[in-house]
Amino acid sequence: MLLQLAIQDFAIVETLELDFRRGMTAITGETGAGKSILLGALGLCLGERADAGSVRHGADRADLIARFDITSLSDAREWLDERELGSDDCLLRRVITASGRSKAWINGTPCTIADLRELGEHLIDIHSQHAHHSLLKEETHLRQLDEYAGIETQVTQLREDFRHWQEAHRRLKRMSNDGDEVRARRQLLRYQVEELDELALSEGELEALEQEQETLANAEQILSEAQAAAECCDHDDEGALARLNQAVARLTHLPGSEQGSLASALGMLEEARIQIEEAARELNRFVEVTELDPERLAFVDERLGRIHQIARKHHVLPEELHGLHQRLSEELEGLGGDEEAIEALRQEVAARRDAWKILATEVGTSRAAAAPQLASDIQDQLAFLGMGKATFEVAVEPRERPQPEGMERTHFRISANPGQPSRALAKVASGGELSRVSLAIQVVAASRSTIPSLVFDEVDVGISGATAEIVGQLLRRLGDKGQVLTVTHLPQVAAQAHQHLHIEKQAEKNTTRTHMALLDESGRVRELARMLGGIHLSEQTLAHAREMLSAADSRH
After folding, report:
1. For residue 5, which phi and psi values (nearest 5 degrees)?
2. In whole angstroms, what is the distance from residue 45 CA to residue 92 CA?
3. Whole-number Å distance between alpha carbons of 525 and 549
4. Which pTM was predicted?
5. CA angle, 107 as apex, 106 and 108 as ends, to 5°?
6. Residue 379 CB neighbours (<10 A)
7. Which of 24, 53, 181, 185 could join 497 in a cystine, given CB atoms 3.0 to 4.6 angstroms apart?
8. Which DSSP letter does residue 25 get?
9. At what angle do helices 205-217 and 294-313 cross, to 10 degrees?
């Protein structure tokens, strides 16, 4: 249920906070006063498209907040819990800057506009004043029947299954109808990929082979030089180690007093001797373990030669062969392949078609069962709205070809007068009749809705007199079960409300502002009198307004 709506710098509203309650709330005001601002702000909180014109002139941004109580909305709580946003309250915030940029939050966490729209479907149901125009469209009839039957989830899955079926069918058709050029390309790709598969060049292998080739090719020279270096370090009496030993011995045998002044030099000679010994051991170890491997060198040379040969064949650098192999393999896979692949795709198409048909049959059965009951419920509401002699039908007819939403089409038909055949709404219903049919359908839909918050935006357009009072009673009944916000110009409707919200526009110098407030009993009388008799309120008009409120209260 909608608990609160806070508006700041939106349209001509500077700042406003409204608290809402259960029951029916009538929203009234003169034309142009700003009733659309209230619903516009709510719509933006629910993810509608925004633009820079939404921001009040002279302000940097518009800030809108809607707070809902979701303790009884299991779908909304589940949606929030899945995203770790769970709370007993749900706070939606939308900010639109003067440049037209928009940001959104759910319970203080940034979100996308799509998230707002998705969550909003679980929070509130808005019925537009233009709904009767959509009654002329066949797809609207089918959607309303599906909503009444409670099979929206199955129909969504049906569309998804149809899409997968058609995608698989298109792939099969494309693969089966390949021309000579595609077949030739596939043959060439298969040969090239097989050649590269046989080469099996791994990533980084080329660089490793080139380094190994350089090492193997120069192995003999490296081995010879290492051995010569080892002999320079330690070879009989001519090596560096022998000469260092002689130098150390000479200094060691000096008299004690002189030996102290050369201690630093003697220490460095000792360190040099240790380093030379280590170097000699490393060089000798290298010479011992290193062997010439002409066979490995021949293999590496041959491998590199093959790699360069295939690279020239494909007009690429050797280091580009690995990437080329991946690209050609992907292209070959994308072109499809042999009869086995085609047969596998045929089986996939058949399986997806059969799955769609099974679900389509279930959906069709549900539609056929729900259609008579929907027609009966709508006809009952039409009788309540002064069209008791009308006959309403929900016709479900088979389609010639499968469609994403199933194998049926639905038509709403009406006979406004006894003895006349039922015909399509567009051909027989007047504007006023269409408004009442639309309202009857919306009331039936709302009575089946699991969402306790309903908004009716001037759905009583084209209705007047006693019928208007009946419309108010219908909306009051819906309000008894939850929360109904209705924008209306009819005093007969407003009088039925549990509470009354009045909107007026105030001009101050060069500034125009909108003021909104819940009316007390005297305020309701004056507003109903204005709606009945205009600007100048006579005592008779005020008395009539009191009588309307009294009659509404006594009836409930």
Report:
1. -135, 120
2. 6
3. 8
4. 0.58
5. 90
6. 20
7. 24
8. E
9. 140
Q: Judge contact between 233 and 276, C-beta under 8 A.
A: yes
> What pLDDT, in 10s, does the model give residues 345-369?
899 999 999 999 999 999 999 999 9
- What residues does 398 pair with on adjacent strands? 408
Across residues 374-382, what is the average pLDDT? 91
- The tokens of 383 are what? 């009788």
CA–CA distance, 231 with 251 (Å, rounded to integer): 25
In degrees and rounded to multiples of 5, residue 482 shows phi and psi of: -170, -125
SS (H, E, C) 477-546: HHHHHCEEEEECCCHHHHCCCCEEEEEEEEEECCEEEEEEEECCHHHHHHHHHHHHHCCCCCHHHHHHHH
The CB density around residue 86, as the number of other CB atoms within 10 Å, is 15
Residues 6+ positions from 51 with CB-CB distance below 8 Å: 96, 100
Residue 247 tokens read as 């130098």
- With DSSP H G I counted as helix, E B as strand and the rest as coil, what are the percentages for the chain, rounded to 5? 60, 20, 25
CB 87 within 8 A of CB 107: yes
Token pair in block for residue 93: 């915030």
Residue 200: which region, alpha, beta or left (left: phi > 0; alpha: psi -120 to 50)? left
Separation of CA 367 from chain center: 29
pLDDT tens figures, 494-512: 999 999 999 887 777 666 6
Separation CA 412–CA 410 (nearest Å):
7
pLDDT at 519: 93
Please give the C-alpha separations between residue 335 and each of 92, 194, 197, in angstroms, as whole numbers.
48, 16, 18
Q: 269: closest CA among 254, 240, 247, 239?
A: 247
Residue from 464, 431, 443 nearest 380 by CA = 443
Task: Answer whether 93's CB lies under 8 Å from 63's CB.
Answer: yes
The closest of 548, 551, 555 to 524, measured between CA atoms, is 548
Which residues are CB-neighbours of 13 under 8 A, at least 6 positions away? 7, 34, 37, 41, 56, 513, 514
CA dist., res. 502 & res. 524, Å (int): 9
Q: 58 — alpha (psi -120 to 50), left (phi > 0) or beta?
A: left
Q: 476 Cβ partners below 8 Å, 6+ apart? A: 24, 484, 496, 497, 498, 552, 556
303: nearest Cα among 222, 212, 215: 212
Gap between the Cα atoms of 475 and 18, Å rounded: 21
Q: Could you give the percent of the chain with pLDDT greater than 70?
A: 91
Alpha-carbon gap, residue 512 to 553, rounded angstroms: 36
Beta strand 125-127 with 453-457 is: parallel
Six token digits for residue 349: 């198409």
C-beta neighbour count of 192 within 10 angstroms: 19
Distance, CA of 507 to chain centre: 42
At 84 the three-state DSSP class reads coil
